[in-house]
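#help-structures
NK: newbie question, is this the right format to request a structure? protein is Phosphoglucosamine mutase
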Amino acid sequence: MSNQSFYSLNTPLFGTDGIRGKAGDLLTASFAVQLGFWAGEVLKSEKTVPGPIIIGQDSRNSSDMLAMSIASGLASTGIDVWYLGLCPTPCVAYITNTSEAIGGIMISASHNPPEDNGIKFFDTNGIKLSTAISQKIEEGLRGELLPTVSQKKLWGKILYKNNLINNYYDFLRKSLPPSFSCRGMRIVLDLAWGASVNIAPNIFKQLDATVFSLHEEPKGELINVNCGSTNLKLLQQAVEKYKADIGFAFDGDADRVMAVDNTGQIVDGDFILFLWGKYLMQKGNLPDNLLVTTIMANLGFEKAWEKLGGTLIRTPVGDRYVQAKMIETGAKLGGEQSGHIICHNHGISGDGIQTSLQICSLLQQSETSLSKLVENSFKPYPQILHNIRFKDRNSLNLWKDCEALQKGIEVAKQSMKSNGRVLVRASGTEPLLRIMIESESSDIAQYWINYLVSIVEKYLNIK
């Protein structure tokens, strides 16, 4: 089961959110079979009691192919596969955690375009696989491990377990106050043609909301195209058109959500964390008044939270890092500006649908509009993000060794000092260099963005 022909030995296979790439390039059926085999071998070795592995998927056209291929690889190791079909990533995490499963797999490239796909792995607790276990799977793919030798051939079964999704529905309902209802609320949902198309509108309707759905079918060829959590224009227009109280946009696998308030203004993950955190703080349900977020969180958010008496810890970008820090510190709430929100008072993973339900509960209990809550929260510093696409990841990896760029970053930092921030990082899922400048002045932020982009274009090979 060696896989040396599939990728360079110098290039890590697992990124910040599993394995991601273009379907048909790295992510082929033959690769997925081998990946399933070695994932099965490694995950079996980590557990003394056998159990199944959960598989779910989003709506991408390539997701069926990858799900069935990786299931075949798992079955060849003697592991049973419980296949859920179309469902959100947090559904896979929840069912993995609450069943006898030894692991879970989600086939999705999250917010990426339709031609991409990805494979996310969870351990038996529904948490993203540790780096150590991921590396062992890679070692198997490289031919550096020997498969388990068995005296008799034991084949696993692939069982269709779509009914388990009902357990996720129950979990979402139980995370809400018993008396909670959305009666009287007008809510727009942008489902991004993805994994939330069945669950999100149904649960809001069960709670008596008046629901208006956009991109409400599982169309893999359109997933995330000009819609969803990374493109809110159509949601903003719909909130205005339907005179809605709130709008929510999910990404392709529904582990993140962005909101639009009743005036059409965007409410990102920073505002969601602040408002939810403040509510939990007032209820005494936020240990040490601690929030965990990433280096992307707005400086205005951080200063306002500290003014309330709270503590904010930053991690590298990626919900797995937020999750790890939350477990380490005992924090109950954390997340990312992009809308990955994790609340350990209720669940174990970033969950866009759960977050949207909790925001509606918060609105009901505060008896005010989301726009009023945001108005009374904090004023964000102007923050400009510019993505530069490289021709491949090998070219992208050279940015840290570019002396001119490193000097430019230092010049920008020294100029703004404590009144701004500079963040330059490589994307963990795409060949992109992300440059973020934050300053009290949008003109200053734009100046330093232009300055650093010009250096990248001059000294690095991006064509």
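mod (FA): yep, format's fine, and the tokens are attached above. The domain at 383-459 is CATH 3.30.310.50 (TATA-Binding Protein).
NK: thank you!
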